[in-house]
Design brief:
Family: Belongs to the SNF2/RAD54 helicase family.
Helix content: 40-55%
CATH class of the largest domain: Alpha Beta
Structural class: alpha/beta
CATH superfamily of the largest domain: P-loop containing nucleotide triphosphate hydrolases
Keywords: ATP-binding, Helicase, Hydrolase, Metal-binding, Nucleotide-binding, Zinc, Zinc-finger
Domain Helicase ATP-binding: 1-207
GO molecular function: ATP binding; ATP-dependent activity, acting on DNA; helicase activity; hydrolase activity; zinc ion binding
Domain RING-type: 390-435
Oligomer: single chain
Shape: globular
Number of domains: 3
CATH topology of the largest domain: Rossmann fold
Length: 653
């Protein structure tokens, strides 16, 4: 057996412990000696298609480290490089977009070492793109002048689980990058199975384990045959000299925390769906259960797995908002019809009281309309905070005062129950006072805005006085909110009242749900920015800069998949997980964007879970997956197949 020959390794510290800073420290402390002769490329056994790597076509870059990271982390690597270095000691180049026009061979070659960048930062997407270009030129690396035309002093793959599949094009592209030293950074070296490790070992060119037939003989085959101890002993032998891993729970020899972090509290908040939301959920659940039962009876469960899983996805979406389960075209048509009706009545989802009174008084002067005069009178009473008795329950003052489209007032819940009661009897709901037809869509609650909601406007107006009157508005009760959004609003407002300026991060795996949260935050004057996978690298960097630097309280809306890895969000100390993921490890990764080195405050996490729903069952599956992960995923393909069926049974039981 050949001796392992690896210049580099796997840094697998738990998320949030500063892997980026450790690598920057290495870049500063370990540099090449330009007087030394160029080292030849390390020998490797590689059964994948290879690009030609003639010495004449690849230029040695003795001073340059290449960092490959997800697109969302490019700006962060550049920012951390600047913060961790004295001015002028580290030159960085973000090789992305327009910067790709530079010829890296000329820029980084030994003859230009004094002017060469110390760090080149690029994305996995750029590596794959240039790999395809060079492959199309019959493997001529030098003519392109790009990433593959250079032999770097060091390559660092950040979030290296991006190459966990050895057969993926991205993994194959990364294998072909040339360097003397190779490092991989990942908080999750094993995502689903032991074979994930092989891809990392193959990139590091650890002989003989980078040969898949060798790996298969000594690790995969014993593993699949049930000889776990033998297989894991070999894995441990391979990894021991390669891997450095530390966790947040580790202690120093004197018993202190290895990395002192502020406390973190994770609370599961049980959400109760409204009657309308529950009806949508129950309908989708019944349909999914019927499909599952029919396929079990027919013995076609695995064939119909995709169909059943799509219905489960709809079920999860209905826990967030019923609109997520409906056709966009139908929703758009309904919104157009509702907007046309509002226009004819002069109504809107959110109406400023002052503006409405002025509008009524102007119309009254022109046309002497009794309804306008009465409307202005009612609204002025509200403005003067005159307490009135609810005509339905006789409570004084009304609890959550609401008004109808004909401008008569009652408690919000009394009014909605009154309308529902008449509907249940098969009657057209009519106003308790004037007998005009009314509906729940035209019920508006009186909102007295807290002074903090005006802070953003005051902050941008230096001459503003603090003695302003809080705004009052009439807000449509049925205005495309959901139980989860209402709960989120409650906590955001409560947090801002208790501690002004607190920043929060809101995670959801559904960008369409973030689309629905946005207008509600805007309506309530809660400032926010958004970060998701559809944005360009520059737009992402601008959002993160804005979120970090703006001094006032701000909410960051973040898609779980785009923002779950690598980002540093220590400017926030409140996290809201709007929906659970199948594995809690993914949620934990997202939470660790906030709870990590550099976080000075306690972090509070709210996980919103709908009571009695598929989401509660997902939490049980998460617990089981934690156990499976702790046993290194020791399941055969057949066992995994059985487990998937068991998961579906549990979800639809």
């Amino acid at each position: 057996m050949q001796e392992q020959n690896c210049l580099g390794g796997i840094l697998a510290d738990e998320m949030g412990l500063g892997k980026t800073i450790e690598m920057l420290s290495l870049i500063h402390s370990h540099t090449t000696d330009l007087s030394s002769a160029p080292d030849g490329a390390l020998a490797t056994v590689n059964n994948l298609p290879r690009l030609s790597a003639h010495s004449s076509s690849v230029e040695r870059a003795p001073r340059t480290t290449l960092v490959v990271a997800p697109m969302s982390l490019l700006a962060q690597w550049q920012s951390e490089s600047e913060k961790a270095s004295n001015p002028g000691t580290l030159k960085t180049l973000v090789y992305y977009g327009s910067e790709k026009t530079v010829n890296l061979q000329k820029l980084c070659c030994e003859g230009n070492a004094a002017n060469a960048p110390n760090v080149i930062i690029t994305s996995y997407g750029v590596v794959l793109s240039e790999f395809n270009q060079v492959a199309g030129m019959d493997g001529n690396r030098g003519s392109h002048g790009g990433l593959f035309s250079v032999e770097y002093f060091r390559i660092i793959l950040d979030e290296a689980h991006f190459i966990k599949n050895r057969q993926s094009k991205t993994a194959k592209a990364c294998y072909e990058l040339s360097a003397q030293h190779r490092w991989v950074l990942t908080g999750t070296p094993i995502v689903n199975r032991l074979e994930d490790l092989f891809s990392l070992v193959h990139f590091l060119r650890v002989e003989p384990w980078s040969n898949f037939s060798f790996w298969k003989t000594f690790i995969t085959v014993p593993f699949e045959s049930g000889d776990f101890i033998r297989a894991l002993d070999v894995v441990q032998t391979v990894l021991e000299p390669l891997v450095m891993r530390r966790t947040k729970e580790m202690k120093t020899p004197d018993g202190k925390a290895l990395v002192p972090l502020p406390p973190r509290t994770i609370e599961v908040e049980s959400i109760e769906l409204s009657k309308a939301e529950k009806e949508v959920y129950d309908w989708i659940y019944t349909r999914a259960k019927r499909t599952f039962a029919a396929n079990v009876e027919a013995g076609t469960l695995m064939k119909s797995y995709t169909t059943i899983f799509a219905q489960i996805l709809r079920l999860r979406q209905s826990c967030c908002h019923p609109l997520l389960t409906r056709s966009k075209d139908i929703v758009a048509e309904e919104e157009d019809a509702a907007n046309a009706e509002d226009l004819s009545k002069g109504l809107a989802d959110d109406m400023d009281l002052d503006t409405l009174i002025q509008q009524f008084e102007a119309e009254d002067e022109n046309g002497e309309q009794d309804v306008n005069r009465f409307g202005a009178h009612v609204l002025k009473q509200i403005q003067a905070e005159q307490h009135s008795e609810c005509p339905i329950c006789a409570e004084e003052p009304m609890e959550e005062q609401a008004v109808t489209g004909c401008w008569h007032s009652a408690c919000k819940q009394c009014l909605l129950d009154f309308i529902e009661h008449q509907r249940d009897k098969g009657e057209i709901p009519r106003c308790f006072n004037c007998r005009e037809p009314i509906n729940s869509r035209d019920v508006f609650v009186v909102v007295r805005h807290d002074s903090y909601e005006e802070d953003e406007a005051l902050y941008s107006s230096p001459g503003s006085s603090g003695n302003h009157t809080p705004r009052i508005s009439l807000r449509r009760v049925k205005c495309a909110a959901s139980a989860k959004i209402e709960s989120l609003l409650f906590h955001l407002k409560k947090g801002r009242r208790e501690e002004a300026g607190t920043k929060s991060v809101v995670f959801s795996q559904f960008t369409s749900f973030l689309d629905l949260i946005e207008p509600v935050l805007a309506r309530d004057n809660i400032p926010f920015v958004r970060f998701d996978g559809s944005m360009t690298q520059k737009a992402r960097a601008a959002v993160l800069q804005d979120f970090t630097s703006r001094p006032k309280g701000l909410v960051l809306l973040l898609s779980l998949r785009a923002g779950g890895v690598g980002l540093n969000l220590t400017a926030a100390k409140r996290v809201f997980m709007m929906d659970p993921w199948w594995s809690f490890a993914v949620e934990a990764q997202a939470i660790d964007r906030v709870h990590r080195m550099g976080q000075p405050s306690e972090v509070v996490v709210k996980r919103f879970v709908v009571r009695g729903s598929i989401e509660e069952k997902m939490l049980k599956i998460q617990e089981r997956k934690k156990f499976i992960a702790s046993s290194l995923g020791m399941m055969s393909d057949e066992e995994k197949k059985v487990q998937r069926i068991e998961d579906i049974k549990e979800l639809l039981s």
